Amino acid sequence: MSSESERLHKLLAQHGLGSRREVEKWMLAGRVMLNGKPAQPGDRYRDGDRVVLDGQDVTSRLKTTAGKASVLAYHKPQGQPVQPASAGEESSAEESVMERLPAVRGARWLVINTMQPGDSGLLMVTSDGRLADGLRRRAEQIPSAYVARVLVPEPEFDPETLPRMVQFNDQPVAFESIEPAGGEGTNRWFRVEAAHSHRRAAVRALFETHGLKVSRVIQVKFADIELPRELPRGKHKALTDQQVARLYEYAEMEQPVAAPPPRRAPRRAADRQRKKRAR
């Protein structure tokens, strides 16, 4: 479908101005204007329309072909807020994740795997709002892994004694594996593999429902992406083209292709002769 008849909220997301869900909320809040009137989630953008977001004309951005998406892996420290404080909120002493990331031209970073300030580990962000939405919708089909620091009753504690399923929010949540991952004495680390994402609290419940105290849960994997061991906390790393392509496969979406740069018109022979004479 061409941009002349594209749904406006989808087009804004495609150009990295927000996720589709975010844009729909902005529309309902009156923050998006289409031809001088408040836009609605079902409105379509057509050639010649004027679009304003939060008082800023963004029409020119919608007329360009959406480029290749960028995806970053960020090592989020515990306690760091993801978004900067909004007006009226008490600002954190620590810089937010978004304030630490590099600027992305013509778009903004959107979170793929939602994290709270108290969460830590692998945080994924992208410049493609459609990709962020697609991966969030398919969270139950995307594998993930976490490491948990647990206080065990004895150093020889065997994680095989734990069941691979726990009741969480009145629903059964299954885990693929629980493996030792280091530690000393009764303070032990365990790597927990799951066939789904957004279950950090369920990882904690897996141990605590059996009387074990959990002090930390860190996400170390999302889809095929592992948190790089060499990536310091508070730093980011760009994903490779192959890794980004796999994320589109997980989202069951077609990956956008950047438009080729315009070809320069060949210089005429007369122009070349004039330049030679001028030298």
Automatic annotation (TrEMBL):
CDD domains on file: S4 (cd00165)
A Pfam cross-reference name: S4
Biological process, per Gene Ontology: pseudouridine synthesis; RNA processing
InterPro entries: PsdUridine_synth_cat_dom_sf, RsuA_PseudoU_synthase, S4_RNA-bd, S4_RNA-bd_sf
Enzyme nomenclature, EC number: 5.4.99.22
Keywords of the record: Isomerase, RNA-binding
Annotated protein name in UniProt: 23S rRNA pseudouridine2605 synthase
